[in-house]
Every structure is written in C-alpha cells, then in structure tokens.
Amino acid sequence: MLKVWGRVNSVNVKKVLWMLDELGIAYDRSDAGLEHGVVDTPAYRAMNPNGRVPTLEDGGFVLWESNSILRYLAVKHGSALYPADPQARASADRWMDWQLSTLSPAERNLFWGLVRTPADKRDMASVVAAMKAAATCWAMVDAWIARQGGPFLDGAQMTIADIVLGCYARRWFGDEVRVEGMPPFPALAAWYAKVGERPGFQRWVGVPMT
Ligand SMILES: N[C@@H](CCC(=O)N[C@@H](CS)C(=O)NCC(=O)O)C(=O)O
Residues near 130 by Cβ (< 8 Å), separated by ≥ 6? Predict the structure, then answer.
C-alpha cells in the first residue's frame, strides 16, 4: 500500500494528504519531522537524503518534494487535476514553481513567527516584514484570479496548483496569523472560499494550525 511519511501539521504534507483525498486512494501514514524525529535516521535518509517531509513510498519507488509527489500521483492515476493540455499544465507548473521559489521564502516567518513562536519570544518586526512580503506575493495571485475570472486559479478547472496554493493561503487567511495592515484581497478570498469547499481541504488544511 502507498505510504506517506510526514507529520500532519506540515504544509507540504498537507498538500499530499489533500491530493490523496481528491484521488480517493487508500494509504498508510507515519509521523516524521520536528518533534517526531525520524527524518535524521539512516533508514529515512536512505529514502530521502534531503531529510524533509513528505516522502512517498509506492512499492519500491520513493519520491520526495511535495509538488513532484502531486504531479506523480496525478499522472499515475490519470487525474484531470494535472491537465493534459500543455498550456494548462504549464500554468499549473508555473504556480507550483513560484510557490517554491518566491511565495514560501516570503511568507515563512509570518507563520513561524506567530504560530510556532511563543508570544513572549516573538520578533514582531520580522513578522510584519514577512506579512508585507507575503502581501506582495498574494497581491499577484489576487490580480491573476480577478483577471482570469475564477473560480479556480486558472479558470473553471481545479488543478494541483489550487491544492498547493490553497495550503499556503491557509497561512494568510487563518485566524492564527492576523497582523494589522493585511490587505483583504477579494478575488483571492473568493478563490480561497471555493477551494475551502473541498473535503480534502477541510480534513487536512482547514484545521487549527500548529
Ligand atoms: N520543498 C520541499 C520542502 C519540504 C520541507 O521543508 N518540509 C518541512 C515541513 S513543511 C520539513 O521537513 N521540516 C523539517 C521537519 O519537519 O523536521 C517540499 O515541498 O517537499
């Protein structure tokens, strides 16, 4: 049976768990990462030399990097979530690459600085700086969705890019990460409400962040 390694409060593990819900595939999962350890053991490093979560095991095949895992699962199971049309596929790929290269480094300390740092140890200047950097990123997505017309990132068809950005948008819209001066982003909020209807989002992403 398919096996996922990774703790459920990891944004990158959430992508995979949501995707597996979309596909309706049975799997096992083992906690790994942060307080669960595991990622530094020789056995884990033999599977994933990057020492991060998630890792997917499919029979003898091992894959890490969450966005690659989503692509693999979609292709293997013939899912329309990774469109066959080259341009639609490339657009989904673009947003997933952008999450890795641009969004994630920008927004990281908004989440870490508030959710993973006790109140008396917070560096609010760095949290506000991350909020502003994240706002610059989300403003792009807001404008993109407004121009495309929604309801999903690239129009009528939901893709794996909606899963990827949906997991990160939770770290913008969540009650846990309120900072004064956060722009409302109406088109982004409407898209977030739409992806929030997915059972996989509700089960894995729309839960309290820890
Ligand atoms: N680009 C990688 C990033 C993986 C990553 O950094 N995962 C984090 C959790 S979101 C991690 O492993 N943190 C260390 C840990 O949990 O021990 C991916 O998308 O899979």
Answer: 106, 107, 108, 109, 110, 113
Contact indicator for 50, 9 with CB cutoff of 8 Å = no
Tokens matching residue 83: 């469109």
Domains and CATH numbers, the chain: 2-76 (3.40.30.10), 86-200 (1.20.1050.10)
Nearest to 12 by CA among 163, 174, 203, 185: 163
Query: Which pLDDT tens digit goes with each residue over 146-163?
Result: 999 999 999 999 999 999
Mean pLDDT for 31-53 is 98
User: Considering only CA atoms, which residue is closest to atom 11 of ligand 1?
Assistant: 52
Which residue, judged by its Cα, is nearest atom 9 of ligand 1? Answer: 10
**Closest Cα to atom 16 of ligand 1:** 33
Residue nearest to atom 6 of ligand 1 (CA): 52
Pocket test for ligand 1, best of 9, 19, 53 (most atoms within 8 A of CB): 53
pLDDT score at 81? 98
The answer, as to whether pTM is greater than 0.85, is yes
Q: Please list the residues that pair with 4 across neighbouring strands.
A: 29, 56
From ligand 1's centre to the CA of 170, what distance in Å? 17
